[in-house]
């Protein structure tokens, strides 16, 4: 009871007025990181489609889809996504001094983990939706890949 009122007053006067602007500032790098994840997935599936249009080889298509499943663990390809979130380091330095925010690296690492998890979910969903189509007529496969990609991106 003794601490509640001063703590409430401190939060109301010193933190609450800044929460909206802080959230907006932090969401910029976070959003751009997740947009980059989406773009990477889109590019990788488009490459699979283009490769299939050239070769019409179902075995090669299966290999490419199998490689897509490893995308979330490919640090080279995921790096541009992670770099977008590293901008949080600068933004959080200001918060650290003003609001005593610590563990900045933890916030960045958790955000990058969520990005990897999102990519894992996207490729898993793609694989699950597309796998039955591997036995389909090769003329319809490219269209099916595109439809599955759009469904996953949605």
Automatic annotation (TrEMBL):
Pfam families: Niban2
Domain Niban 1/2/3: 9-154
Matches recorded under InterPro entries: Niban-like (IPR026088), Niban_1/2/3_dom (IPR059060)
Superkingdom assignment: Eukaryota
PANTHER family: NIBAN FAMILY MEMBER (PTHR14392), PROTEIN NIBAN 1 (PTHR14392:SF3)
Family classification: Belongs to the Niban family.
Annotated protein name in UniProt: NIBAN protein
Organism: Neodrepanis coruscans
């Amino acid at each position: 009871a003794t601490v509640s009122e001063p703590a409430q007053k401190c939060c109301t006067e010193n933190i609450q007025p800044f929460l909206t602007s802080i959230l907006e500032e932090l969401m910029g790098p976070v959003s751009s990181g997740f947009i980059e994840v989406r773009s990477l997935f889109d590019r990788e599936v488009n490459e699979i489609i283009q490769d299939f249009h050239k070769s019409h080889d179902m075995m090669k298509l299966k290999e490419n889809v199998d490689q897509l499943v490893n995308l979330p663990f490919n640090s080279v390809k995921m790096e541009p996504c992670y770099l977008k979130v590293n901008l949080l380091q600068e933004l959080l330095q200001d918060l650290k001094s003003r609001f005593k925010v610590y563990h900045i690296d933890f916030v960045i690492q958790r955000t990058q983990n969520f990005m990897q998890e999102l990519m894992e979910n996207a490729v898993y969903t793609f694989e699950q939706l597309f796998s039955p189509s591997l036995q389909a007529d090769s003329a319809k496969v490219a269209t099916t890949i595109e439809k599955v990609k759009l469904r996953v991106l949605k």
